[in-house]
Design goal:
single chain, 229 residues, alpha+beta, endopeptidase fold (from Nostoc punctiforme)
Length: 229
C-alpha cells in the first residue's frame, strides 16, 4: 500500500494549488494490486471511488510521487482497505474542502487531547482528508495534533512516516487489456494482479509505474471517458 501525491496540471488542480498554496494537488491511496482509492472528480465519477490504476482519469503529464508506509502493518492495511470500501460512493468535497483552508472554520470542535476519529463521519470527503482519516481509523497517524479536515495534500508531504518510492508521470489514457485482466485475472482467467492497463499510445505500465513496449489488441476500443487531474 502506498500514498500517492499528485502534482496536477488540469484546471481543477490549479484551483487546489491556489487555495492550498502547494504544488501537490491531490492525495490517493494505492492498494497492493495497483488499484487506487481516491476522492476526486472527473467527467464520469464524482466522489470516493476505486479505479484501476494511478493513471486512470487523470491528465497525462501529471506527476505522481508514490510513498511507501514502512511502519504500517499488514493488519492495519487490511483494516484500512475495509474502511475505504465503506466510504466508497460518498461525494467529493471540492469547494467545501478548499474553502475551509480560507475560512478556518472547523466542522466540529477540536481538542487534540480529546479528539476521537470515530466521532468524525463526514457526508463527503476531500482527497487528503480521506487518506489521513483512514489511517487514523487504523491507529496510524501521519501527523500529530491536526484533525483530518485541516489536512491539505501538501501537508501529507510533511509526514516523517512516509518514504518516497518513485516518481511516475501519468501516461496517456489507459484501457483494460482484457475483461478478465481488468477483473484481476490474467488472459487465461487465472486470479492474480498482472498489468491491468494498456495505453492508447505510448508504453504499457507494468506493476507500479514501469513501462514496456505497447502491445495493443485489435479488439480494444478507443477510450471515451473524460479525465481530470
Amino acid at each position: 500500500m502506498r500514498i500517492l501525491q499528485y502534482e496536477g496540471i488540469s484546471r481543477l488542480s490549479q484551483k487546489v494549488r491556489f487555495f492550498t498554496w502547494n504544488r501537490t494537488t491531490h492525495t490517493a491511496i494505492e492498494l497492493d494490486d495497483g488499484r487506487v482509492c481516491e476522492a476526486w472528480r472527473s467527467r464520469d465519477k464524482n466522489g470516493v471511488r476505486i479505479v484501476s490504476s494511478l493513471h486512470a482519469q487523470h491528465t497525462p503529464g501529471t506527476i505522481v510521487k508514490a510513498y511507501t508506509i514502512p511502519e504500517l502493518s499488514q493488519g492495519q492495511a487490511e483494516d484500512l482497505f475495509g474502511w475505504l470500501l465503506g466510504q466508497e460512493g460518498k461525494p467529493y468535497a471540492f469547494w467545501g474542502g478548499l474553502t475551509r483552508f480560507l475560512t478556518r472554520r472547523d466542522p466540529q470542535p477540536y481538542d487534540p487531547q480529546t479528539f476521537r476519529i470515530a466521532d468524525y463521519d463526514p457526508k463527503n470527503w476531500f482527497c487528503s482528508c480521506l487518506a489521513f482519516a483512514g489511517l487514523m481509523h487504523v491507529n496510524f497517524k501521519l501527523l500529530d495534533r491536526i484533525p483530518p479536515w485541516r489536512v491539505s495534500p501538501g501537508h501529507i508531504n510533511l509526514s516523517p512516516r512516509l518514504k518516497l518510492d518513485e516518481v511516475i508521470p501519468v501516461a496517456q489514457a489507459f484501457l483494460p487489456v482484457h475483461p478478465t485482466v481488468a477483473a484481476g485475472c490474467d488472459r487465461e482467467g487465472r486470479a492474480g494482479s498482472p498489468s491491468t492497463l494498456i495505453p492508447s499510445a505510448g508504453g504499457v505500465p507494468e506493476g507500479r509505474g514501469g513501462f514496456s513496449p505497447p502491445n495493443l489488441s485489435s479488439d480494444l476500443r478507443p477510450l471515451t471517458s473524460g479525465v481530470a487531474s
